[in-house]
Design a protein that fits this description.
With about 230 residues, the chain is an alpha/beta fold. Helices cover about 30% and strands about 20% of the residues. The two termini are about 40 Å apart.
Length: about 230
């Protein structure tokens, strides 16, 4: 059986009430819930939250909230893996024995049902412990620079100063949308970024980290541009 877990605690600091703040006409979390339901991948879609208002919004959009997340897993320092572990263990105790579990972030309005299905296919076909969304860096990380305390610059990799960009290895980063995993991998606390994981490659234009008000505005502009383009096709 396959389970989607959408972590959504209530204590967002940089963007208050981020998980249920209106994004292009509906609560942010609704985009993730609807993508999960439309993907057809899951036997159950649950939201893990400590917040009653978030729980109510989640139910309105079709997710279940069978438990409230305990306070010890709802602070600023709790990682993703313990939250997913708790959800799996709760579901198993309730008779739902999930074998593949997808952690889907509540602030991923560009997540696609097609990509969720691709992630499941990659997980199953490769025999990986995890399969998660990634995208490429727009600029070679080998030519990155840092600012010194004196306000000067220096390269992280000065040996690549004269290397042509096209000769540098392409690099990728976590897209922050979803993480498919074997239930056993989650429960054992295996690292997600490891050789036992596979990548679900997304185009850069469909990846947006939303951590600040500026990120939020940019993401809405981008989403509206997608809608405008679709209406012209």
């Amino acid at each position: 059986m396959k389970l989607a877990v959408i972590p959504a605690r209530g204590g967002s600091k940089r963007i208050p009430r981020k998980n249920i703040k209106a994004f292009c006409g509906k609560p942010m979390i609704a985009w993730s819930i609807e993508a999960a339901l439309q993907s057809g991948c899951f036997d159950q879609v649950i939201v893990s939250t400590d917040d009653q208002e978030i729980a109510e919004v989640a139910r309105q959009y079709g997710a279940s909230v069978p438990f409230m997340r305990p306070a010890e897993l709802s602070d600023d320092y709790t990682g993703t893996i313990p939250v997913i572990q708790q959800a799996i263990e709760w579901c198993r105790a309730d008779g739902f024995d999930a074998r593949q579990v997808c952690c889907l972030y509540a602030t991923a309005p560009f997540v696609s049902p097609v990509d969720l299905r691709r992630g499941l296919d990659i997980l199953e076909q490769t025999g990986s412990q995890y399969a998660f969304s990634v995208t490429s860096y727009a600029f070679p990380i080998q030519r990155a620079i840092r600012l010194t305390e004196a306000g000067r610059v220096e390269m992280f990799s000065p040996e690549h100063f004269n290397t042509r960009s096209q000769d540098l290895e392409e690099s990728y980063h976590d897209a922050g949308q979803f993480y498919w995993g074997q239930a056993s991998a989650w429960l054992e606390g295996k690292m997600i970024f490891s050789p036992e994981s596979s990548a679900v490659l997304l185009p850069r234009h469909r990846v947006q980290d939303i951590d600040t008000p500026e990120d939020w505005v940019r993401a809405e502009w981008l989403y509206k541009a997608f809608q405008a383009e679709s209406s012209q096709q």
